[in-house]
Amino acid sequence: MAQIDFLQDMHGKTKRDYVARVTQFDKAECATVAKRFGAEYWDGPRQYGYGGYRYDGRWRPLADRLAAHYMIKPGDRILDVGCGKGFLLYELSQSVPGAEIFGLDISDYGIANAKPEVKPHLAVGNAKALPFPAGSFDVILSLGTLHNLAVEDTLIAFAELERVGRGPRKYVMVESFRNERERANLLYWQLTCESLLSPASWAWVIDQAGYRGDHGFIYFE
């Protein structure tokens, strides 16, 4: 199990006005709307989520990095838990032609509005109860998802990821903080995060769950 940073550079390219997030809008109302993971969250005004989550090719470099690092090859079965509209899975299918892709997301809207090329491989589901037999997948990914669960549920979800994988090729990314500034920024910015934990606390969760894959964080600098 290793801590690996695949995403902070891409994450850091987005400009965020943390103070405006809590002064210009009713943060509680925005969070309530966002946690429905419906149209407002994906494609509504920015205060409710992404502000328009559209395919633009930005995930291809990450797909290439993941494919190289985890030596993904044709025939490998890949599961993305929290796949959203399936953009990363689409890029992986282009990076590694012949890989078998599967995606799961809690959002009916996200799945209904997924990229057409991968939509047949996606389903609505919950990370706490993955609808697959043990050892179903060679590679498992979950990016920006598990922090949206309560702490007690993250333990279940990490254990589920471990259960359905058939080896060590797993990667989970969650939001976290390394200092009080990043903690405050995360508190201001987040809409759906239920487990606001430091890297040390996430390490405890991972250990308790028996998860043996890799993990990483994004920070709100």
Structure write-up:
- Helices cover 38% and strands 14% of the residues.
- The protein has 221 residues and is of the alpha/beta class.
- The protein has one domain: Vaccinia Virus protein VP39 (Rossmann fold), CATH 3.40.50.
- Strands 3-2-1-4-5-6 form a 6-stranded parallel sheet, sandwiched between helices.
- Helix 5 (60-69) crosses helix 6 and helix 8 (151-164) crosses helix 10 (199-209).
- It is globular, with a radius of gyration of 17 Å.
Q: Gist?
A:
By secondary structure, the chain is an alpha/beta fold.
Key phrases:
six-stranded parallel β-sheet, 221 residues, Rossmann fold, alpha/beta
Describe the main β-sheet briefly.
6 strands, parallel
- Classify the secondary structure makeup into a structural class: alpha/beta
CATH class: Alpha Beta
- Widest β-sheet, arrangement of strands: 3-2-1-4-5-6
Shape: globular
Radius of gyration: 17 Å
Count of helical regions: 10
List the helices and strands in order. Answer: HHHHHEHEHEEHEHHE
CATH architecture: 3-Layer(aba) Sandwich
Here the CATH topology equals Rossmann fold
Spatial gap, N to C terminus = 25 Å
Portion in helices: 25-40%
